[in-house]
């Protein structure tokens, strides 16, 4: 899940459209032989959305969705492990840039834009976790 801080210091998540049905999703793909799962996720984020950054080896969670296979229209259940990717830069062109649209959105809004039911709770939890990190610590009274 690519994310960044905007100029106001708010967390934004990068969503992109799926190639066939044009739904708002996060980058995801099949495991790549020879790469750790987080590294594979970072490679997919580059190929699908043109982003580079630092990926965490600790997953945010997992969800299942039905992927439509291009060849014959069948659906297959896929489990996705989601890794946070702190984006340092986004290229102007990348391998799938003519096939997808990308959009940076407030982390709190991202869950409302996707129709992937299993992804929504992960987006909501990520938004809440990042917002909590930004909250100043409560003032301590006299001890």
- What is the helix/strand order? EEEHEEEEEHH
Helix fraction by DSSP (H/I, runs of at least 4): 25-40%
Q: What's the number of structural domains? A: 1
Shape: globular
The tally of helices reads 3
Largest sheet: 6 strands, mixed
CATH fold descriptor:
Nucleoside Triphosphate Pyrophosphohydrolase
Residue stretches low in confidence (pLDDT < 50, at least 5 long) are: none
Q: What is the CATH superfamily?
A: Nucleoside Triphosphate Pyrophosphohydrolase
CATH architecture grouping: Alpha-Beta Complex
Describe what you observe in this structure.
The chain has 143 residues and is of the alpha+beta class. It has one domain (2-118): Alpha-Beta Complex (Nucleoside Triphosphate Pyrophosphohydrolase), CATH 3.90.79. The protein is built from three helices and eight strands. It has helices at 37-49, 107-113, 119-134; strands spanning 2-5, 11-17, 24-25, 51-55, 61-68, 75-82, 85-90, 102-106. Strands 1, 2, 3, 4, 7 and 8 form a six-stranded mixed sheet that branches. Helix 2 runs antiparallel to helix 3. The chain is globular. The protein starts with a strand and ends in a 9-residue tail after the last helix.
């Amino acid at each position: 899940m690519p994310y960044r801080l905007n100029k106001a210091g708010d967390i934004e998540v990068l969503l992109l459209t799926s190639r066939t049905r044009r739904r708002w999703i996060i980058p995801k793909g099949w495991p790549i032989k020879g790469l750790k799962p987080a590294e594979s996720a970072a490679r997919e984020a580059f190929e699908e959305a043109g982003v580079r950054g630092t990926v965490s080896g600790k997953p945010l969670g997992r969800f299942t969705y039905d992927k439509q296979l291009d060849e014959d229209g069948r659906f297959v259940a896929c489990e996705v492990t989601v890794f946070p990717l702190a984006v340092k830069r986004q290229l102007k062109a990348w391998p799938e840039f003519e096939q997808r649209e990308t959009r940076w959105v407030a982390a709190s809004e991202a869950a409302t834009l996707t129709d992937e039911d299993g992804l929504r709770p992960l987006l909501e939890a990520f938004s809440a976790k990042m917002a909590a990190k930004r909250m100043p610590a409560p003032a301590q009274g006299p001890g």
